[in-house]
């Protein structure tokens, strides 16, 4: 069984859920984020209930909560499916996240503490080791923590919540961006440049580098899926 992810008490998607429903929701979200449940895949209530050691009711409740989060699509008389995110939606989210992540990095650069600096440096060093070992799962987990830490250190809960809401949807696609060692090394070099600007106490440089990193992440994703923009005729 996967380790449950943490869901904030004020998460709007879990406001009306039972404690068991929230626990199952966290575990289903983890299965989706790790790629064990893929885009378009049906959530088999019987199989998932057996896997998670619960009845079908909490699985159904969790699916409804994940629908509100944008990770699941519930189709009447057919069931719940892991949502398929379109390329256009993904690109819009990357554009928004560039602004949000840049703003967060600038705030951290203006007031970073020694403990925060140590934590961010440890995460970047850990990603270097994971990339060298071609440990994609470890790299992805540390990458998520690096971004989440900067948002948390920015000290703006609304900013953090909005960023988490939209980034969560990219979990349906983003893992594919780190299939190659070179892309992990490239991404972490960008992380280190963001970190250097934060440690230098340069908010403007931190903002610019964080935005550049997000745009580069978008390019890596498009490269990973071998995306070709449509021509004037609309062909792909």
UniProtKB/TrEMBL annotation:
Gene Ontology terms for molecular function: DNA binding; DNA-binding transcription factor activity
Q: What is this protein called?
A: FCD domain-containing protein
Q: Which UniProt keywords apply?
A: DNA-binding, Transcription, Transcription regulation
Q: Which PROSITE patterns match?
A: HTH_GNTR
What ranges does the record give for the region Disordered, renumbered to this chain? 1-20
InterPro entries (alphabetical): GntR_C, TF_FadR/GntR_C, Tscrpt_reg_HTH_GntR, WH-like_DNA-bd_sf, WH_DNA-bd_sf
Entry keyword annotation includes Isomerase: no
| CDD domains per the UniProt record, alphabetical | WHTH_GntR
State the Pfam families in the record: FCD, GntR
Source taxon at top rank: Bacteria
Q: Residue ranges of the HTH gntR-type domain? A: 18-85
- Is the keyword Transcription assigned to this protein? yes
